[in-house]
Amino acid sequence: MHLAGKSDSGHLGRKEPSRLRRLGVLLTVALLVSSIWTQSAAQDELTSPEQLMSHGFDCFSCHAIDKEIVGPAWITIADRYHHDRAKVPLLAAKIRDGSVGDFGKVPMPAHPDISQKLATYLANYILSLNGALARPPQKYTYKDAASRQVTLDFPVFEDYHGHQVVTKDVFAGFEKYNSYCFRCHGFDAVGGEYAPDLRKSLENGMNKHQFFVVSMEGRPAKGMPGWAGFFDADELNQIYEYIVARAANLLPPGRPPSRSD
Ligand code: HEC
Ligand code: HEC
Hints:
mainly alpha; Cytochrome Bc1 Complex, Chain D, domain 2; two-stranded antiparallel sheet; 49% helix; 6% strand; binds heme C
């Protein structure tokens, strides 16, 4: 969009040969048309949360439909506003302008690049969600390296052709951690020179919500980058599960056994 602004600002235009100017005008029109087209195409195709992410919107870095991540679960938002369609304009405005204090102290960033039409669509979509989509909690119990029982709310291992391997998510978490986080937090999540041992952070009481808030927002002043927009919540969850499994002493250092072994 700012490209379009440049080519119709007069001061460059005067001295330009007219052919170039015509080209500039054409380019401006093409850019405008394509950006309107992309926005309305995005609007028309959005029928699922996955598509939101694939259109480059960062909503699912911080939200999930049925659980709190950095921001409230979308079903919680729908409940809070009683699924009342009269609240669509209010929610659409909050999506574009950002919000803080309605659910907690963590701010929801503004999204000025989202059109009014798309914000309205998203607000309608969120208000249409209901608790029937929530998954019931499950428990998984394992023995750690010292044969103590550990109970988690996600699976770490699965049986694969008679072998015990880690789940795809835990393995993906191992790979992502050791590609993006190890640099500061140390290989195998043992802590680094510059950044804390994240197993200790969890042992000392950091809960999942807090882990997600720090990871997605970062603490830029202290050298911790924010990962919102880079990872979605499912991807960060894989890293979280890997660190929890390491903290619970279920995985030794190094590459865990996976389906591809
Ligand atoms: C960096 C994290 C983050 C991102 C990215 C994010 N949100 Fe939020 N969202 C939050 C937080 C935190 C809140 C709670 C704000 C509050 O307490 O007022 C929130 C609140 C909301 C609310 C309720 C607003 C209110 O005050 O009632 C809606 C609706 C919402 N988000 C939709 C979205 C949509 C749609 C997107 C993507 C376009 C998105 N969010 C992206 C963190 C985020
Ligand atoms: C460039 C270095 C760097 C990278 C890369 C990095 N971190 Fe951090 N992280 C830090 C620093 C430094 C801190 C400590 C900040 C402070 O003092 O509050 C930190 C703190 C944290 C904390 C809070 C720990 C606590 O006990 O308060 C979490 C959670 C965290 N990082 C997650 C991650 C995850 C997940 C990744 C990979 C996706 C990652 N970090 C990648 C530097 C980094």
